[in-house]
Each structure stands twice: as C-alpha cells, then as structure tokens.
Amino acid sequence: MAPPADYETRRDGKWKLVVRPEIWNPELRAEIFARVAAAPPQKHPRTLKLGDAFYLKIYSPPAGAARVKGFFRDSKALRALKQSEALARAGFHAPPPLAAGEERIGGALSRSFLLTRAIAAVPLAAALGERFAAPLDRSAARTKRQWIERLAGKIRRLHEQGFVHGDLVVSNVFVALDAAGEPMFFFMDHDRTRRYPRWLPQRLWRRNLVQLNRFLVPGISVRDRVRFLRFYLAEGRAGEKEYRLRRWTEKETRRRYGPTRKPLRSRRTA
Predict the structure, then answer these.
(1) Dihedral in degrees, nearest 10, Cα atoms 63, 68, 73, 79
(2) What is the Cα–Cα distance from 149 to 142, expressed in whole angstroms?
(3) By mean pLDDT, which of 36-50, 70-84, 146-160, 217-231 is the weakest?
(4) DSSP structure string for the chain
(5) Which residues, in sequence order, are CB contacts of 142 under 8 Å at separation 6+?
(6) d(C-alpha 100, C-alpha 82), whole Å
C-alpha cells in the first residue's frame, strides 16, 4: 500500500520517513530521533507523550521470524499509519497519524516509530465504569443500551468494509462525546489491523468479537454482552452463517461470564 496522498516520503540517512509536511520540522525531528535513540530494546512497543499535542510510539528491532519478514514488508509503524488513514477515509475514528519512520541496515528492519496527534477521548472501559457501574435509573439504562448498540453497529460496519482490527480488546477502544452528546468511538493501535476482501470467511470477524469480549468491564453485564452480539447481527442480516457465529459467541460469553436469560432460540430472533 502506497503512502496516503497527504504525506511525503523522505530519506534521512538510514531512515525512510512518511510525514505530514506541514508539521514536520527540524525541532520535532530532533526530539523524535533523540527519544528513539534513548529507548531500550523491548518486546512490546513503547508509547510516550510529547507535550500536549503528540504521542510517539517506538518499536524495537524485530526478532526471530519477524526479523526475516521485515525484509519483505513495511514496519509496523508504517503499516499502522497507512491503516489509520484507510480507516479515516472509510469514516471511522482513529488517532490521526502525522509521521512514521523505519530504519534499515543492509535491508534489515531495525527501529521504527509512529507519531500521532493526541485525541480528546478516554478509554471506553473507564467511561463505562464512570457512567454505568452504579445502579441505574431508567434514563441511564436506556443510554447504556444506546451506547452498546452504537458500538455494535460501528464494529459491524468496520467488518462490512473489510477491516479486521489486530487487537480489538476494550483498552483499544476510546470514546468521546460529539456536540449532540452522542458517543464517538476511536479505534486505537493499528499496526496489526488489516483490510481484506469482503467475501473472506467470518473467522476473522470472530477473532475481533472474542477479543472485545475477553475482559470484565465495570457496568457491563452478561446481558449487555449478549445484547451487543444480537445487535451486531441484527437488521435483516441473520443468515445461516451469521446465526452460527452469533450462537457460538453467545455460548462463549455465557461460559465465560455466567448465565443470562433469554437464550438464543431461532436464527430469526433479533
């Protein structure tokens, strides 16, 4: 995938850079390169805040089989930039990427980085716990249902557009409120997000549903999880494949978190 049109590709010594030219300057470059040089090697990427406007994600050189793969594909930083831009063009929210770079030595991938703009959003789990953990009145319960249904619809549309998130755990979903007070969901961490042809098997979707369902979240009950799954597969889309996916995922939800009433009875049930 080529860099998006709003970016420039530059060479800087052993580094390949893909940057938004309106924000890239010598001072920002110097700070990023100093942070990258000082970062100790580690298995997982490290995220640092740069002032109030930026976040810098630093990737160490790959090891093992990933080192071999690094000869033939972009770094995770460049892939994350391109997928974040693809998501934005498709109408989804993600932290805006501003620059990415990868260092290569003799063709071998070494360090890389991704610079994103800070967003005015909070982790979804924290927002749910703050708003919906306490006993709820009828209005708050209705608002929670609306949040759940909106998130389910957003993830369904993500999959319908061919995207599969690389790690759709609840900590990789942030939320902010728009001018009307409605939730806007931001999908984070796209170095493993991919876009596939829409006809591919739903096992890729299933992985995302399992990931999102993996952790306990304050304020979210088993009933809420099943409501999410039913809305995800509702609105006239209940074919045989969707029914099997929903039946399997509901079974896993109840097995993991406990029973709830109204079990799945028919593939026509919404």
Answers:
(1) -10
(2) 11
(3) 217-231
(4) -PPPTT-EEEEETTEEEEE-TTT--HHHHHHHHHHHHHSPP-SS-EEEEETTTEEEEEEPPP-THHHHHTTTS--HHHHHHHHHHHHHHTT-B-PPEEEEEEEEETTEEEEEEEEEE--S-EEHHHHHHHHHSS---HHHHHHHHHHHHHHHHHHHHHHHTTEE-S---GGGEEEEE-TTS-EEEEE---SS-EE--TTS-THHHHHHHHHHTSS--TT--HHHHHHHHHHHT-TT---HHHHHHHHHHHHHHHHHH---SS----TT--
(5) none
(6) 10
Q: What is the pLDDT of residue 200?
A: 75
pLDDT at 257 over 60: no
* CB contact set of 231 (below 8 Å; sequence gap of 6+): 148, 149, 152, 153
Convert 122-139 to b/e letters by CB count within 10 Å (16 or more is b).
Answer: ebbbebbeebbeeeeeee
Long-range contacts of 43-50 (CB under 8 A, 24+ apart): 45/76, 45/191, 49/118, 50/115
Both tokens assigned to 176: 């902010």
Q: Which residue from 14, 25, 62, 12 is spatially nearest to 42, judged by alpha carbons? A: 62
User: Which has the higher per-residue pLDDT, 244 or 67?
Assistant: 67
Percentage with pLDDT > 70 across the chain:
84
End-to-end C-alpha distance for the chain, whole angstroms: 38
